[in-house]
Amino acid sequence: MSLTFELGIIVLLVLFNGFLAMSELAVVSSRRARLAAMAEAGSGGARRAMALAENQGRFLSTVQIGITLVGVLAGAFSGATVAGRFDRWLEAEVPALAPYAEELALAVVVGAITYLSLIVGELVPKRIALAHPERMAALAAGPMRLVSAVAAPFVWVLDRSSHLILRLLRIEATETAMSEDEIRAAIGESTAAGVLAPEENEMMRAVMRFADRKVRTIMTPRREIDWLDLNEAHDVIVSRLRATKHSRYPVCRDAIDDLVGIVVAKDILDIVLSGRDFNLSALVRPAEVVPDSAGALSVLERLKRAPVHLAVVVDEYGAVQGVVTPSDILAELVGGMAEHGENWVPQAVRRDDGSWLIDGDMDAARAGEVIGFRGLGENASYATLAGFILTEFRTLPRAGQAFDRGGFRFEVVDMDGRRIDKVLVVPPSATEDRA
């Protein structure tokens, strides 16, 4: 055989090794959801790649057989043929090196083949696979199926042997699902890469936050409830409907904790507009009552089945703590919205110096995400930023009082009676700048 032919064989073997290495990493690191989307779009390669990924043990055995065989053949050709030719050339052209020609020739040839194998057969193909895993997996899936068919008998032997050894070691293969943190990281990476828009990123994160929320963190609190008294005069009730403009109201007897039911404002207004007097008791519908410890998702399911889309939230003693409506849930998922022509005011505003001015009744976990304070909202003893402040002070604070936690400075800047209205949060970077 000519030297050119032998070198050509070695180059082809190295290229085939690179193809196997690229195929292995591409199929293993491909995102199944992305491959499924490509398959639905008509990509046959993506469908074949998914089939390979579903039986990773057999696929990896095929790759390993191929890489091992390539290594053996490349070593045989380089050591037995190319090194021999180079040895004779050194003896003829450089007589002074003749005593060392065999060792020197073998070292040079093995070094050159090793370098070529590392660059062309490993590193570059794997970098390509990492850069475009799904596309490379789809391109390589067809040829790899052919390689798998050829290597099937050897793969079966290796697969059975591997299973036997794993059973002897009492090791069982398990499917590991992605954790919430991994999903959040994947969403963040997709947003950074431009695959997801920032708005899509925020909505996905909001949905994941919502699944962990308790209803008490999203309800309209007791002090903000507009309710109707069953014993009030009708003209007072109508005036309240005009002033508050809600579509549904809790109906109570003398006090908010004596709940009677729910009334739909339209039922009252239809009668009033027809010129007739109304009987509030006859219009009251049963109230959907939920404990304040209930999960937000379970309350959403109850609201979907309820005849009136308003649930009254009570504590363990039966005292009314708030109400929750589909609007509260929508605000949790997509953010607050203005009502009745009012201007919407965000709960958290970032100031020019990097600090944040935040409403005390903002959900603690969401406030923590906004300002970058990990762990805020994980304590079940409070639901809002004001609750966190009270937990830290262990007494009712005064405006101007402050404390430091985790490098952040929290300062109460406004009190509405006994309620913490506004909190100034200074992140670590802004704190250093002030110093």
From TrEMBL:
Cross-referenced InterPro entries: CBS_dom, CBS_dom_sf, CNNM, FAD-bd_PCMH-like_sf, FAD-bd_PCMH_sub2, Ion_transp-like_CBS, Transptr-assoc_dom, UPF0053_domain
Primary localisation category: membrane
Membrane topology: Multi-pass membrane protein
Pfam family, one: CorC_HlyC
Coiled-coil regions listed in the entry: none
CDD domains attached to this UniProt entry: CBS_pair_CorC_HlyC_assoc
Domain CNNM transmembrane: residue ranges: 1-200
Compartment(s): Cell membrane
Alphabetic keyword roster: CBS domain, Cell membrane, Membrane, Repeat, Transmembrane, Transmembrane helix
Domain CBS span(s) in chain numbering: 219-278, 283-339
GO MF assignments: flavin adenine dinucleotide binding
Classification via SUPFAM superfamilies: CBS-domain pair, FAD-binding/transporter-associated domain-like
Transmembrane segments: 6-28, 59-84, 104-124, 136-158
Entry-linked PROSITE patterns: CBS, CNNM
Cellular component annotations (GO), alphabetically ordered: plasma membrane
Family to which the UniProt record says this protein belongs: Belongs to the UPF0053 family. Hemolysin C subfamily.
UniProt name for this protein: Hemolysin
Organism: Caenispirillum salinarum AK4
